[in-house]
Design a protein that fits this description.
Length: 202
Protein backbone atom coordinates (compact mmCIF):
# COMPACT_ATOMS: atom_id res chain seq x y z
CA UNK A 1 0.00 0.00 0.00
CA UNK A 2 1.42 3.43 -0.93
CA UNK A 3 0.25 6.97 -0.16
CA UNK A 4 1.62 10.50 -0.44
CA UNK A 5 2.41 13.10 2.24
CA UNK A 6 3.60 16.68 1.74
CA UNK A 7 7.33 17.36 1.99
CA UNK A 8 8.31 20.00 4.58
CA UNK A 9 11.45 20.96 2.66
CA UNK A 10 9.71 21.51 -0.67
CA UNK A 11 6.04 22.52 -0.49
CA UNK A 12 5.26 21.31 -4.01
CA UNK A 13 7.14 18.01 -3.71
CA UNK A 14 5.58 14.81 -2.56
CA UNK A 15 7.22 11.98 -0.63
CA UNK A 16 6.06 8.43 -1.29
CA UNK A 17 5.78 6.12 1.74
CA UNK A 18 5.29 2.42 1.18
CA UNK A 19 3.77 0.34 3.96
CA UNK A 20 4.56 -3.38 3.89
CA UNK A 21 2.15 -5.61 5.77
CA UNK A 22 3.95 -8.41 7.63
CA UNK A 23 2.29 -11.74 8.32
CA UNK A 24 3.21 -15.09 9.85
CA UNK A 25 0.99 -16.90 7.35
CA UNK A 26 2.63 -19.15 4.79
CA UNK A 27 2.70 -17.75 1.23
CA UNK A 28 0.23 -19.16 -1.28
CA UNK A 29 2.01 -20.76 -4.27
CA UNK A 30 1.71 -18.74 -7.47
CA UNK A 31 -1.27 -19.72 -9.60
CA UNK A 32 -2.99 -21.68 -6.85
CA UNK A 33 -5.70 -19.07 -6.28
CA UNK A 34 -7.43 -20.01 -9.52
CA UNK A 35 -6.90 -23.73 -8.98
CA UNK A 36 -8.47 -23.72 -5.50
CA UNK A 37 -11.64 -21.67 -5.43
CA UNK A 38 -13.28 -20.94 -2.06
CA UNK A 39 -15.08 -24.01 -0.82
CA UNK A 40 -14.02 -26.25 -3.70
CA UNK A 41 -11.70 -28.46 -1.62
CA UNK A 42 -14.35 -29.04 1.05
CA UNK A 43 -16.94 -29.68 -1.66
CA UNK A 44 -14.74 -32.41 -3.13
CA UNK A 45 -14.25 -33.93 0.33
CA UNK A 46 -18.00 -34.01 0.93
CA UNK A 47 -18.52 -35.66 -2.45
CA UNK A 48 -15.85 -38.22 -1.59
CA UNK A 49 -17.65 -38.92 1.68
CA UNK A 50 -20.82 -39.74 -0.21
CA UNK A 51 -18.94 -42.42 -2.18
CA UNK A 52 -17.28 -43.66 1.02
CA UNK A 53 -20.60 -43.91 2.87
CA UNK A 54 -22.15 -45.90 0.03
CA UNK A 55 -19.75 -48.78 0.73
CA UNK A 56 -19.29 -48.15 4.45
CA UNK A 57 -19.54 -50.95 6.97
CA UNK A 58 -20.05 -49.74 10.53
CA UNK A 59 -17.23 -50.71 12.90
CA UNK A 60 -17.75 -52.29 16.31
CA UNK A 61 -19.93 -50.29 18.68
CA UNK A 62 -17.17 -50.58 21.29
CA UNK A 63 -15.06 -47.41 21.34
CA UNK A 64 -12.12 -49.23 22.92
CA UNK A 65 -9.24 -49.68 20.44
CA UNK A 66 -8.77 -53.34 19.49
CA UNK A 67 -4.97 -53.21 19.81
CA UNK A 68 -5.15 -51.15 23.02
CA UNK A 69 -2.54 -48.71 21.69
CA UNK A 70 -2.45 -44.93 21.31
CA UNK A 71 -0.31 -43.41 18.55
CA UNK A 72 0.93 -39.82 18.83
CA UNK A 73 2.13 -38.55 15.45
CA UNK A 74 2.87 -35.38 13.51
CA UNK A 75 0.04 -33.90 11.47
CA UNK A 76 2.27 -33.78 8.35
CA UNK A 77 0.18 -34.68 5.29
CA UNK A 78 2.93 -36.99 4.01
CA UNK A 79 2.66 -39.28 7.04
CA UNK A 80 -0.02 -41.99 7.20
CA UNK A 81 0.35 -43.69 10.61
CA UNK A 82 -2.28 -46.35 9.96
CA UNK A 83 -0.67 -47.49 6.73
CA UNK A 84 2.86 -47.22 8.13
CA UNK A 85 1.98 -49.40 11.13
CA UNK A 86 -0.40 -51.83 9.41
CA UNK A 87 -3.33 -50.70 11.52
CA UNK A 88 -7.00 -51.00 10.60
CA UNK A 89 -9.97 -48.86 11.53
CA UNK A 90 -10.75 -49.44 15.20
CA UNK A 91 -7.27 -50.70 16.10
CA UNK A 92 -5.87 -47.62 17.84
CA UNK A 93 -6.31 -44.09 19.02
CA UNK A 94 -4.47 -41.63 16.80
CA UNK A 95 -3.50 -38.27 18.30
CA UNK A 96 -1.90 -35.81 15.89
CA UNK A 97 -0.51 -32.30 16.17
CA UNK A 98 2.23 -30.14 14.69
CA UNK A 99 5.44 -32.11 15.26
CA UNK A 100 3.81 -35.00 17.10
CA UNK A 101 5.10 -33.53 20.35
CA UNK A 102 3.67 -34.41 23.74
CA UNK A 103 1.88 -31.28 24.93
CA UNK A 104 -0.59 -30.85 27.79
CA UNK A 105 -3.44 -31.55 25.40
CA UNK A 106 -1.78 -34.78 24.24
CA UNK A 107 -1.47 -35.85 27.89
CA UNK A 108 -5.18 -35.05 28.25
CA UNK A 109 -6.04 -37.29 25.30
CA UNK A 110 -3.73 -40.08 26.47
CA UNK A 111 -5.22 -39.94 29.95
CA UNK A 112 -8.74 -40.36 28.56
CA UNK A 113 -7.46 -43.05 26.18
CA UNK A 114 -5.99 -45.09 29.04
CA UNK A 115 -8.34 -44.45 31.92
CA UNK A 116 -11.65 -44.45 30.06
CA UNK A 117 -10.97 -46.53 26.95
CA UNK A 118 -8.44 -49.14 28.00
CA UNK A 119 -5.28 -48.47 25.99
CA UNK A 120 -2.02 -49.74 27.43
CA UNK A 121 0.76 -48.91 24.94
CA UNK A 122 1.94 -45.57 23.57
CA UNK A 123 3.77 -45.13 20.25
CA UNK A 124 5.32 -41.73 19.48
CA UNK A 125 6.20 -40.82 15.88
CA UNK A 126 8.19 -37.85 14.60
CA UNK A 127 9.54 -37.78 11.05
CA UNK A 128 12.38 -36.49 8.90
CA UNK A 129 12.02 -33.09 7.28
CA UNK A 130 9.53 -31.80 9.85
CA UNK A 131 8.33 -28.23 9.43
CA UNK A 132 8.92 -27.52 13.13
CA UNK A 133 12.64 -27.78 12.44
CA UNK A 134 12.37 -24.56 10.41
CA UNK A 135 10.63 -22.54 13.15
CA UNK A 136 11.72 -20.91 16.40
CA UNK A 137 9.77 -19.60 19.37
CA UNK A 138 9.99 -16.19 17.64
CA UNK A 139 6.93 -17.41 15.75
CA UNK A 140 4.88 -16.56 18.87
CA UNK A 141 6.39 -13.07 19.00
CA UNK A 142 5.59 -12.52 15.32
CA UNK A 143 2.00 -13.59 15.96
CA UNK A 144 1.76 -11.14 18.84
CA UNK A 145 2.99 -8.32 16.62
CA UNK A 146 0.47 -9.25 13.94
CA UNK A 147 -2.69 -9.86 15.96
CA UNK A 148 -1.98 -8.00 19.22
CA UNK A 149 -2.10 -11.04 21.48
CA UNK A 150 0.63 -13.51 22.44
CA UNK A 151 -0.40 -17.17 22.13
CA UNK A 152 -0.63 -19.09 25.40
CA UNK A 153 0.91 -22.15 23.75
CA UNK A 154 4.53 -22.85 22.89
CA UNK A 155 5.57 -23.62 19.33
CA UNK A 156 7.48 -26.71 20.56
CA UNK A 157 9.97 -26.37 17.71
CA UNK A 158 13.09 -28.55 17.62
CA UNK A 159 16.28 -29.12 15.63
CA UNK A 160 16.79 -32.83 16.35
CA UNK A 161 13.76 -35.09 15.83
CA UNK A 162 15.26 -38.02 17.75
CA UNK A 163 16.08 -35.86 20.75
CA UNK A 164 12.57 -34.42 20.74
CA UNK A 165 11.16 -37.96 20.68
CA UNK A 166 13.20 -38.66 23.81
CA UNK A 167 11.72 -35.60 25.47
CA UNK A 168 8.22 -36.70 24.48
CA UNK A 169 8.80 -40.19 25.89
CA UNK A 170 9.98 -38.64 29.14
CA UNK A 171 6.89 -36.46 29.35
CA UNK A 172 4.65 -39.50 28.95
CA UNK A 173 6.59 -41.65 31.43
CA UNK A 174 6.60 -39.00 34.13
CA UNK A 175 2.99 -37.87 33.83
CA UNK A 176 1.08 -38.49 37.06
CA UNK A 177 -2.18 -38.83 35.13
CA UNK A 178 -1.24 -41.87 33.05
CA UNK A 179 -1.77 -45.39 34.37
CA UNK A 180 0.45 -47.27 31.93
CA UNK A 181 3.95 -45.96 31.17
CA UNK A 182 5.94 -49.19 30.90
CA UNK A 183 5.34 -49.64 27.15
CA UNK A 184 6.19 -46.24 25.66
CA UNK A 185 8.31 -46.32 22.51
CA UNK A 186 9.37 -43.58 20.12
CA UNK A 187 10.33 -43.50 16.45
CA UNK A 188 11.41 -41.20 13.65
CA UNK A 189 9.66 -42.02 10.38
CA UNK A 190 11.90 -41.65 7.31
CA UNK A 191 9.91 -39.92 4.57
CA UNK A 192 12.30 -41.22 1.91
CA UNK A 193 12.25 -44.91 2.84
CA UNK A 194 9.01 -45.32 4.76
CA UNK A 195 10.88 -46.98 7.61
CA UNK A 196 10.47 -46.31 11.32
CA UNK A 197 13.75 -45.80 13.13
CA UNK A 198 13.39 -46.49 16.84
CA UNK A 199 14.83 -43.92 19.24
CA UNK A 200 16.84 -45.08 22.24
CA UNK A 201 15.28 -43.34 25.26
CA UNK A 202 18.64 -43.15 27.08
Amino acid sequence: MAFFVPSHSEPRARVTITVVRMTTSAPVPAGSEAAIAPGSVTDRLVEANQRYAAAFTAPSTDARPVQRVAVVACMDARLDPHAALGLELGDCHTIRNAGGVVTDDVIRSLTISQRALGTRSVVLIHHTGCGLETLTEDFRHDLEMEVGQRPAWAVECFQDAAQDVRQSMQRVRTSPFLLHTDDVRGFVFDLKTGLLNEVDPA
